[in-house]
Automatic annotation (TrEMBL):
Name of the protein described by the UniProt record: DUF429 domain-containing protein
Organism lineage: Bacteria, Pseudomonadati, Bacteroidota, Cytophagia, Cytophagales
């Protein structure tokens, strides 16, 4: 089960900030887009991984990016907020509309992975899981020493969390938090925020 999903911190297309966090059955590794096209990087990484028939297929990714728009744009009765989805309001997350192009890319990526590769994509929010598992410790300018200490805290909560190396950047650490959200989801330990008609965030 550990080898069938991945957590991804999703950045702008060529920033190099997109990071895949993956457990190969022995330990967790980080893979960075390195200023390549981030979407093609993710697609290629999954394709190459699934070519190896000695491993179980990767079937699910947990992506730190909005995967839907506010439901008012679909004219669904009962929704009137043009800026935020219910899940965004509940978690005080950024508006998918403010993120604009990143949201559109994430939605297109999800559709491609589902239609062409039989891979499901779920939306996660690293800050939210950090507030649950690492209360008062997480912030957006973590030092390498802080990340190492927080990994120790996460390992106590999730025994299977074995790292090949500690995160070296905030983006790697956020990808790890996305992976933790996926682990919680697949072990039915997760929380769900939002309305299924509009879009949910897995925490």
């Amino acid at each position: 089960m550990l080898s069938t999903f991945t957590g991804i911190d999703y950045g702008s297309k060529t920033s190099g900030n997109t990071v895949v966090c993956y457990h190969d059955g022995r330990a967790i590794h980080f893979y960075e887009a390195d200023k390549k096209d981030a979407d093609l990087f993710i697609i290629d990484w999954i394709s190459k991984y699934n070519l190896d028939q000695n491993r179980p297929a990767l079937t699910t990714i947990f992506l730190d990016a909005p995967l839907s728009l506010p439901a008012v744009y679909q004219s669904i009765v009962g929704f009137s907020n043009y800026h935020y989805r219910q899940c965004d309001v509940a978690l005080k997350a950024m508006s998918p509309m403010f993120l604009g192009g990143l949201t559109a890319r994430a939605m297109e990526l999800k559709q491609h992975l589902q239609d062409k590769m039989n891979v499901e994509t779920y939306e996660v929010y690293p800050k939210a899981i950090a507030q649950i598992l690492l209360p008062d410790h997480y912030h957006k300018k973590l030092t390498t020493n802080e990340m190492e200490a927080l990994c120790g805290m996460l390992s106590r909560a999730i025994p299977e969390l074995c790292l090949a190396e500690y995160p070296k950047t905030q983006h790697q650490f956020d990808a790890l938090l996305a992976w933790v959200s996926g682990y919680r989801f697949l072990n039915q330990q997760h929380l769900i925020f939002g309305d299924i008609q509009e879009g949910i965030i897995i925490v």
